[in-house]
Amino acid sequence: MTHPATTSDHQARLPAPQAGPPQRADPARWPDVARLPAGGQVRTAVAAHLVGRALRQLPLDVRTGTGRGTGTGRATGPARRPDLTLHDPDAFFRRIGSHGLIGFGESYMAGEWDSDDLPGLLTVLATHVDDLVPAPLRGLRPLWVTARPGRDRNTRRGARENIHRHYDLSNDLFASFLDPTLTYSAAVFTGFPARFEDLPAAQHRKIDRLLDLAHVTDGTELLEIGTGWGELALRAAARGARVTTLTLSTEQAELARARIHAAGLGDRVDIRLCDYRDVEGRYDAVVSVEMIEAVGAEYWPSYFATLRAALRPGGRIALQSITMGHRQMLNTAATHTWISKYVFPGGVIPSRRAITEHAAAAGLRTESDLGFAEHYAHTLRLWRERFTANRQTVTDLGFDTVFQRLWEFYLAYSEAGFRSRYLDVRQIVLTERSPR
Measured between alpha carbons, how far is 241 from 243 in angstroms, rounded to an integer? Predict the structure, then answer.
């Protein structure tokens, strides 16, 4: 689950900043962070009244601070409520009044507010999201949200650009917070939540469960849609499968090839820089892990049609997908959000209902469907803690302070989504629907 998706590809790559307070946002790289929205006094006043009142009614400590914080504090004591410290209340409410939740995230990127427990704060907000706007005003939502920009559509060209803007930032950046398996999706922990084993073991458990669900064994011809950095392909090949795996990320493909060659499995794995819509051949099994979220709602019919066309009779498809409620999905599918602006351009999280309906329309039926949201929350917590601990490494890679605050917010925001159950993650098995 990122990146600056506002101007040029690697716009946050700068010489390492000097030690000290957060640097001011470079307007050439972060135009909407560096500059406050123009005008909007009425909107600012309305936001201060409505949002301020809503925040005071939540289990939070809202206070005004001075200076520009770093966002690295942590709550102490099990009973302590998360805080929201406003360093610049006028800027905070001005951004929210002009751009809603996008402005809320941009205000954090600008250093205008902080929290001693960022995921805890965002969990409270996600849990009470419907309470932040009075019921009579919720019907006016279309008046204050903006549509997704056309450039983010996942045409073949658009999909390549959207993947590039996230996954081609830097392999070293991802290595700074992922575990050594370089697996960028929810792990499955044993004995949860009583105890946790290390993250690599939990990632292998997730991968092995997906391969088992797809019945991948010695001799299986497997199609993987979404290579990542190659760990699933490695484990499938080690079982004796022959793997064709697709990605649009040049940096992922390069490192995945190197890892597979180092493991001596190059004769069993074919990594292709290829759009899923251009897949050829038929396979005994298809696996796709948290890739459907990057497809875009308008292309879900093409995605499921591709899955169906690639499957041999009797084959199985194992998907891992983040999901949200159907009403929430309908509200966000066409809406420009902070995540779609800065993290995953073109991405849309489906609902379970949408997956079932689109799969059925393609001639597939859902054979099993298992959720494990709390496991993703813990996975994200580990990633966020590692990212924070390796902040100097990220700085040395040339990523500026605004980028670092963006990434920390993204990881905490995602963790909160799963902690609050606003989001879920599912492992779903699809098979060919029997003719009537």
Answer: 6
Tokens coding 272: 């292709």
CA distance 199 to 183: 10
Confidence check: pLDDT of 141 > 70? no
**Range 177-205 burial, b when 16+ CB lie within 10 A, else e:** bbbebbbbbbbbbeeeeeebeebbebbbb
DSSP 245: E
What's residue 272's pLDDT? 98
Task: Tell me the C-alpha distance between 416 and 125, whole Å.
Answer: 9
Asked if residues 95 and 107 have their Cβ atoms less than 8 Å apart, the reply is yes
- Domain limits of the chain? 36-145, 152-432
DSSP type of residue 61: E
CATH tag, 152-432 = 3.40.50.150
Q: Which of 46, 62, 134, 58 is nearest to 94 (CA)?
A: 46
| Nearest residue to 179 via CA among 163, 201, 194 | 201
- In DSSP notation, 311-325 reads EEEEEEEEEEEEEE-
Residue with tokens 């946050």: 12
Q: What distances in angstroms separate CA 311 from CA 108, 284, 285, 362, 428, one per listed residue? A: 46, 6, 7, 12, 16
pLDDT in tens, 65-83: 764 444 444 444 556 899 9
CB-based contacts of 46, cutoff 8 Å, min separation 6:
97
Q: What is the DSSP letter of 151?
A: G
The pLDDT, as a whole number, for residue 21 is: 42
Strand 113-114 vs strand 83-86: parallel, antiparallel, or unpaired?
antiparallel
Give the range among 191-200, 225-234, 291-300 with minimum mean pLDDT: 191-200
- Residue (of 187, 157, 121, 216) closest to 372 by Cα position: 187
